[in-house]
Amino acid sequence: MTSPAPGLDARATAKTASDAAPTAARGAVSADPLYAQVASHYRQAIAAGTMPPGSRMPSVRALMGLHRVSLSTALQACRLLESQGLLQARQRAGYFVRPPRATRLARAAEPRQTEADPARFVGVHERISDILTRGLATDVPVNLSGACAHPTMYPIRALSLQAQRLLRRRPEILGTPPDPRGLVALRVALARLALDARIQLGPDQILITHGCTEALGISLRAVTQPGDAVAVESPTYYGLLQILESLGLRALEIPTSPHTGLSVEALEAAAAREPRLKAVVVVPNLQNPLGAVMPDAAKQALLACCEARDLALIEDDTYALLCDTPQRAIKSWDTTGRVIFCSSLHKTLAPGMRIGWMSAGRWHARVEILKYAQSRPNEMLGQAVVAEFLGAGQMDRHLRALRARLATQRELMAQALSDHLPAGTRLSVPAGGMNLWVELPEGLSSMALFDAALDKGLRLSPGWMYSNSDRFDGFLRINAGIPMDERQRAAIAMLGALCASMRRAQGYTAGP
Ligand SMILES: Cc1ncc(COP(=O)(O)O)c(C=O)c1O
């Protein structure tokens, strides 16, 4: 399709472009042709959300002036972005950022099984270690296996300035034993943050931990004995399975919808058959790996089920602040101290800092002592840096920007997957966060794809990791947290080609 000539209204749009990112293309030393450098400049601005869908691209004449390029270079840059689905040309009006295209991939399906299997001891250690070790041992240009955003999407400059100021002003924090419960200023700031999820807590009800991982481990130690059963979502975060295995607990995997989360009916039925069920661990907002958000009614029904059966409800809040629209925590309905709320700033503020926290209701005194026995307090510097950042009211602005960028990146990733993965692929694009859950067409194995893709420089997260069973070998979790660029696009195209060749080898003839 040939595009109409873009309009020549330079003034308003030139400002947008120079505001978006100053002269990245001009003077840059790059092997790419000039038009590709100009296109890459705007691709980054679109991916960053600086140029949201519907916004006008600078006119061709404005591009010529801004980047000191010829008419044909400016036009080629626009046409490249148009061919990549990022811009659309409007007759006599110029180029505009394309609104998200409906992907041609079908929506993720509801789980096939409606009943839980019996609780089983977890034996995932070997398979997960093998996948993680092989993945980490291979230096890859494109890594879609993580569950964090790109480091540049976190306020690392503000945090590092804060750290430097603190060390200058209060060097004694390096020589003073920290409060075992965590720095009080941080606990106050987190209690304030929890209000957004409608949770009322005092700082004395909060314990700072080494990430959510420690909070989950301590919670389970507080409410179970080896051999007990714990209900978890299926699929679930593999780190939770590793914790269950290390504590000698049995996992009762409950069918979980990619859209509405854990099935409370299936839990009710399974709980009636499992006398040693002691706890439920749930990620109600942006479940990992599915991205599901439980409706409020389901959250309340789950709490009621735990009350009726005297189960501890361990709520993992890791991703909740990344929801496009604010969601309530289950803890906000808890009037009896049954919910152990576990959270972390690892995905939302600072992946390098390992700051988590918990509020354990009726088990709080017990978890304080378990934490002290297990790892002693968190170090003070990181806590003080984060306390200052939160206390200065900078979190809201950071989270707004992070959510907007992730929304754009999810769309771009969904489009790239839709462009390259074979027909029959299904996709869940959640309302927040960075995790996309892909159901491969019948017959494709995520483990086979993991091996083949790793050989070609792409690290994936196979569905096989997210269960104690083999049920999810036909799935992949894809990280949309890294801004889309040509390398990622090429890696997704390569993934599509791998799927197609594996399908051909199995005798399927339909192309993507
Ligand atoms: C659902 C869930 N819970 C907990 C964690 C671990 O959190 P942290 O890194 O804060 O220990 C993760 C990390 O991926 C996760 O996805």
UniProtKB/TrEMBL annotation:
<keyword id="KW-0238">DNA-binding</keyword>
<dbReference type="GO" id="GO:0030170">
    <property type="term" value="F:pyridoxal phosphate binding"/>
</dbReference>
<dbReference type="InterPro" id="IPR015424">
    <property type="entry name" value="PyrdxlP-dep_Trfase"/>
</dbReference>
<feature type="region of interest" description="Disordered">
    <location>
        <begin position="1"/>
        <end position="24"/>
    </location>
</feature>
<keyword id="KW-0805">Transcription regulation</keyword>
<dbReference type="InterPro" id="IPR036388">
    <property type="entry name" value="WH-like_DNA-bd_sf"/>
</dbReference>
<keyword id="KW-0032">Aminotransferase</keyword>
<dbReference type="Pfam" id="PF00392">
    <property type="entry name" value="GntR"/>
</dbReference>
<comment type="similarity">
    <text>In the C-terminal section; belongs to the class-I pyridoxal-phosphate-dependent aminotransferase family.</text>
</comment>
<dbReference type="InterPro" id="IPR015421">
    <property type="entry name" value="PyrdxlP-dep_Trfase_major"/>
</dbReference>
<keyword id="KW-0804">Transcription</keyword>
<feature type="domain" description="HTH gntR-type">
    <location>
        <begin position="32"/>
        <end position="100"/>
    </location>
</feature>
<keyword id="KW-0663">Pyridoxal phosphate</keyword>
<dbReference type="InterPro" id="IPR036390">
    <property type="entry name" value="WH_DNA-bd_sf"/>
</dbReference>
<dbReference type="GO" id="GO:0008483">
    <property type="term" value="F:transaminase activity"/>
</dbReference>
<protein>
    <submittedName>
        <fullName>2-aminoadipate aminotransferase</fullName>
    </submittedName>
</protein>
<dbReference type="InterPro" id="IPR051446">
    <property type="entry name" value="HTH_trans_reg/aminotransferase"/>
</dbReference>
<keyword id="KW-0808">Transferase</keyword>
<dbReference type="GO" id="GO:0003677">
    <property type="term" value="F:DNA binding"/>
</dbReference>
<dbReference type="InterPro" id="IPR000524">
    <property type="entry name" value="Tscrpt_reg_HTH_GntR"/>
</dbReference>
<dbReference type="GO" id="GO:0003700">
    <property type="term" value="F:DNA-binding transcription factor activity"/>
</dbReference>
<dbReference type="InterPro" id="IPR004839">
    <property type="entry name" value="Aminotransferase_I/II_large"/>
</dbReference>
<dbReference type="Pfam" id="PF00155">
    <property type="entry name" value="Aminotran_1_2"/>
</dbReference>
<dbReference type="InterPro" id="IPR015422">
    <property type="entry name" value="PyrdxlP-dep_Trfase_small"/>
</dbReference>
<feature type="compositionally biased region" description="Low complexity">
    <location>
        <begin position="10"/>
        <end position="24"/>
    </location>
</feature>
